[in-house]
Design a protein that fits this description.
The protein has 286 residues and is α/β, with parallel strands linked by helices. The protein has one domain. The protein is built from ten helices and eight strands. Helix 3 crosses helix 5 and helix 8 packs antiparallel against helix 10. The longest helix has 30 residues. The protein is globular and about 45 Å long.
Length: 286
């Protein structure tokens, strides 16, 4: 992915120099992070657990000044460039296809822990979109976990993660996310999980549209990039994560979709570049 020296987004809120750390951040390094990331991608909301751990191990978090490394600075630049690309692409799509203005999200960079209206953001929970404040929360150390623990390395795999969270904001902008979450609250656990799968697969498809436009309009895609994104989508399928955790896959517990489904819906968005092809809620076959 050609990203060095390109335009960076202004919609970055960098909280990394004042890191918030507590019991959660000290539980067990990358090994613990990998375990909790698996839970996160399986749809288990681990943030309340982390909040409780933080209270039990010191009564909250302690704020301290953190020095940023060269790797930290490069990661921030990469995320900022990727976010800028999503702004340009979704701005174009909203104007040309929807006749509306696109209001981009803010992306919060943090190290260790930080607060969000959707509960504590932690390095262990992985990146997420909070519809309450319309912000994406990301500790770039997650990219290390993605590569080393989950086997999805490469800059375009990391870009896919950012694009996927931005896609949730696009769903929010279109009113889809609010309706789906309202339906989830009224449903049984099994049905709520099934709705979550459709939300996540649509976000994968919208991420594919971003990749399509990044190649066609921005010309930033390089050989091997698409393979990295498809590999990342496959590595975080519910069935793959459950097998890697030593469990028999249980479809009724899936919240993000199987590896095949995630890969296929990303590819669908990439191949068609058509937002109408991403309606997972009307699809008979996922």
């Amino acid at each position: 992915m050609r990203w060095q020296g390109r335009r960076q987004s202004d919609n970055i809120e960098d909280r990394r120099r004042m890191a918030r750390r507590g019991g959660t951040a000290q539980v067990g390094g990358l090994g613990m992070i990998a375990i909790v990331v698996v839970a996160y991608f399986l749809g288990v909301d681990v943030r309340p657990v982390l909040d409780e751990l933080s209270r039990q191990q010191g009564g909250g978090t302690v704020q301290s000044t953190t020095e940023l490394t060269e790797a930290d600075r490069q990661a921030a630049e990469f995320v900022s460039v990727t976010l800028a690309d999503t702004e340009e692409i979704w701005g174009r799509i909203f104007r040309a296809e929807l006749g509306e203005a696109y209001s981009p999200p803010t992306l919060v960079l943090f190290k260790g822990m930080t607060q969000s209206p959707c509960a504590t953001a932690s390095a262990a929970t992985g990146p997420f979109y909070c519809p309450v404040d319309r912000k994406i929360y990301l500790d770039t150390d997650f990219f290390v976990t993605l590569s080393r623990q989950l086997g999805a390395g490469g800059d375009f795999a990391a870009a896919y993660v950012v694009a996927h969270e931005v896609a949730h904001h696009v769903q929010d902008e279109l009113g889809i996310l609010g309706q789906a979450n309202a339906a989830r609250q009224r449903a049984s656990q099994t049905d709520a999980n099934a709705i979550s799968v459709r939300i996540e697969l649509q976000a994968d498809c919208l991420s594919g549209i971003w990749a399509h436009q990044a190649e066609a309009v921005l010309g930033t895609i390089e050989p091997g990039d698409l393979k990295e994104a498809l590999n990342a989508a496959r590595k975080i399928g519910d069935d793959t994560l459950q097998r890697n955790a030593g469990r028999q896959p249980m479809p009724h517990t899936f919240t993000h979709g199987t590896s095949d489904q995630r890969e296929r819906w990303f590819a669908r968005g990439y191949q068609t570049g058509d937002i109408n092809e991403c309606d997972t809620f009307r699809a008979d076959r996922l």
